[in-house]
Every structure is written in C-alpha cells, then in structure tokens.
Design goal:
Blueprint lengths: L8 H15 L7 E7 L3 H13 L4 E7 L1 H10 L10 H12 L3 E6 L12 H4 L9 H8 L3 E6 L3 H7 L5 H15 L7 H21 L4 E6 L2 E7 L6 E2 L2 E2 L5 E2 L7 E4 L1 E11 L4 E3 L2 E3 L3 E5 L2 E6 L4 H8 L8 E7 L4 H5 L6 H4 L5 E5 L9 H4 L8 E5 L6 E5 L5 E6 L2 E2 L2
Parallel strand pairs: 1-2, 1-3, 3-4
Antiparallel strand pairs: 5-6, 5-19, 6-11, 7-10, 8-9, 10-16, 11-14, 12-13, 14-15, 16-17, 17-18, 19-20, 20-21
Helix pairs in contact: 1-2, 4-6, 7-8
Length: 405
C-alpha cells in the first residue's frame, strides 16, 4: 500500500537503504545529519531508521519550513533578508569537524507558495542554502548525499494534466526507475554507471582543454578552464577515505572553470527552481567572466538577486557535462528540481567553485568564491560541446548527447 510519499513500504525502505548505505555510506559510530522540508517527515524517518540499522551513533533530523520563509519575505525589513544567524553555519562546520555524515532531500514542497512574493525580495533570502556547505564539501570532511523525496505537491507540478493520485503514482514510477530501484541490485547498477562516468571524466581531463564552447538554439557560450582543471564524476572520497556518492541520481562529469573567462550568451534548456521560485525562459549574457545580463520569461529578479550577493556570485564556479545515456533525460520530464534536471542536461553554476577539481594549488587562489551556488541547465540534444585547445584546435566533446572523445 502506498505511503504518504507515494512509495510503498518496501520501496521506501529500499530507497532509505540506498541513501544511507551507498550514497552517504554511513559508518558505524557516525553522527548522521538529515535535512528536509516540512512535508517530507515520512522519508526522513525512514532514512533515520536505516541510519541506525547501519550503526549510526546519533541521527539529527532538521526541517526547513517554507511557510516561515514566506512570513519573513512578506513582513521583515528588506535590509534584514540576507541575514543568517551564526549558529546555522557553525552547525555545518561542526558536522565537518566531527566527521559526520550528511543526507539531504530534494524535491519542491508547495512550489507555488512564493509566487506572489516580489522576486527581487525573494532573491535576498537564500535559505536553506548555507555558504558553509561549500567549505565542508571542498575540505571533504563529511560523507554526504542528496536524493529526491516525492510528494503530492511536487507531483502536481510535474504532471498537472493528471489527477492527483495518478500524478503522484507517475512521479514515483519515474523516480524508482531513475534511482535504479527497479534493478535487482541498485548499488551494483550505480557502481557500473559511476565507472562509466569516471572513465568519461578521465578522457576529457586528459585532453587538457583551454575552454569549452557550447552552441545551440540561443546559445553561443565559451567557458574558459584553469590550467589544472580536471573533470570528476560524483564518486567522492573524504579525507578519511570514506567513498560516497554525493548525488543520487548523478549522471554528470564536472569541473571548475576560470571565473574570468566566460564569454557569450546562453539560454537555459529547462526551468530553474531556486529559493522557492521557478524561473522560466532564462537567458544569461557573460562578458569577461561576469554575468552582465540576466533575463527570463518569469522571475528573472530572483536570480539577479542571487547574482548580486557578492563579487563572485555573478561568475561561474562549475561547468558540467551530461551525456544522453542517463535515465533522467530519457524520461522527457521536466522535474523542476535541480538535483534531477541538472543530471538530465549539461549545466553551469553561478557562484562557489570546487577546489577538488583543481590539481595545482596555484589555481586554488584563482577559483571563484561566493556565498551562492546556483546550477542552471544549458544542454540538450541540440546543444553541441566543443573543446578548445590552447593552440586553437577544436575537438568535438558532446554531440546529440553522445561522447565524442
């Protein structure tokens, strides 16, 4: 019988075990932090139970309430909207210092709740995102993962043409397939996919491209790379040697660009869900690495607000490539959830960069730093990616969703 989330009891337990035992790879004796919004309690509890079965010392569950965020955006003084209490970031840093495991849940809850809020105001409050999260990721002090938590509101957003029960059932079927929970051994299936992605990352890294050129409808964008930029797949290892898969699902290879060398115009190929708002028809123009124009059919002011947060917020901190072999893109569904949509298409991110993608310490001083990290999708089968060498050679990398290297 389906549970509140739409998962039947057996599938819910299977999902929780995948997140705990493989995604975060929780170790006996670890403290485990689980984060979700109000409305995802059932899945949080299932993950907590799995964490304890895997030997967790303590499980700390925390919930973000979008209604409280709405109250702040409606009533608080505008100059206070970017304020974050110090203990929020201190908690994240403490998780790293104590070598904890972290598990997060994606998927919009009440996606229309902030629709009547001035987008410029909404862009000033970036919670639940915390800049300290980037620090513990770069320092590799926690083993962590994020996975999608289905629910009725999300299902209605993704499948508005269906009756509520059918919409939820359809979303769950898609997620079960995307998460490889329909395999006899989901962990083995993910390990095999990760092997493919790691090999692709190594091939692209070996070419030592100076830049990547994206071309497609409305897109002519060149993203410069740093001399020691390397591509990675989402199979990480902590400083203590714990292997984990930070995103489930993950279908990307990614790297750290040169924040001063992005040029051109790019058009998003999917809507972007950020800070409780949905941005549609996004188009961004870059000059000398900086986003000088951010336009959209809807809610452009939200991303503009994010891009004004600090000097690095309008520059790129990530470039990622996604082939056509992953399961997300093949569904043909727009999920309005960055975790899923970014793994369906190549993407870039404004804001903080990943130090782990740089092999030379000298490049660490050049990588982008920011309090934000916002991915938006720019790839499709109509978008080609070409590698540019320092000598001017053009090398096909991705075309029609197929690797060319």
């Amino acid at each position: 019988m389906p549970t509140q989330s739409g998962f039947d009891a057996a599938t819910l337990e299977r999902f929780a075990d995948l997140m705990v035992g493989f995604g975060a790879n929780v170790q006996p004796g670890q403290i485990v932090s689980i984060g979700g919004e109000i409305g995802k309690e059932e899945i949080v509890r299932a993950i907590a139970a799995s964490a304890y079965r895997h030997g967790a010392k303590f499980v700390d569950a925390s919930y973000f309430d979008l209604h409280v965020k709405r109250a702040r955006l409606v009533h608080a003084a505008e100059e206070t909207l970017s304020f974050v209490p110090s203990w929020y970031g201190a908690r994240i840093l403490a998780l790293g210092e104590q070598r904890c495991a972290r598990i997060g849940l994606s998927g919009p809850v009440e996606p229309h709740l902030l629709e009547d809020i001035d987008p410029a105001r909404a862009g000033k409050d970036q919670l639940p995102f915390l800049r300290e999260s980037g620090k513990v990721v770069n320092e590799r002090t926690t083993n962590w993962t994020i996975g999608p938590a289905p629910g009725r509101d999300w299902a209605r957003l993704v499948h508005p043409e269906l009756e509520p029960d059918e919409a939820l059932a359809t979303l769950v079927r898609e997620l079960v397939h995307i998460l490889r929970l329909d395999e006899d051994d989901p962990v083995a299936a993910w390990r095999a996919r990760a092997d493919v992605l790691v090999a692709a990352a190594e091939r692209v890294t070996e070419r030592r491209f100076d830049a990547l050129h994206f071309e497609g409808p409305g897109t002519d964008l060149t993203v410069g790379l740093l001399p020691s930029s390397r591509f990675l797949a989402a199979r990480f290892e902590t400083v203590d040697g714990i292997t984990h898969m930070p995103n489930i699902p993950s279908e990307e290879i990614f790297s750290t660009p040169d924040p001063l060398r992005t040029e051109g115009v790019v058009r998003a190929t999917k809507p972007l869900s950020v800070g409780g708002s949905i941005i549609r028809g996004l188009e961004v123009e870059f000059r000398a690495g900086r986003a000088v124009r951010i336009d959209a059919d809807e809610k452009a002011e939200v991303l503009r607000g994010y891009a004004e947060r600090d000097p690095g917020a309008a520059r790129l901190g990530e470039v990622a490539l996604v082939d056509g072999e992953g399961r997300i893109g093949r569904t043909g569904t727009v999920f309005f959830d960055t975790l899923l949509d970014e793994n369906a298409a190549s993407h870039v991110a404004l804001g903080s960069a990943y130090a782990m993608c740089l092999e030379d310490d000298a490049d660490h001083a050049r990588m982008n730093e920011s309090e934000i990290h916002v991915d938006f999708m720019i790839g499709s089968e109509d978008v080609t990616v070409t590698g540019l060498t320092a000598s001017g050679e053009r090398v096909p990398v991705l075309a029609a969703g197929t690797w060319q290297v």
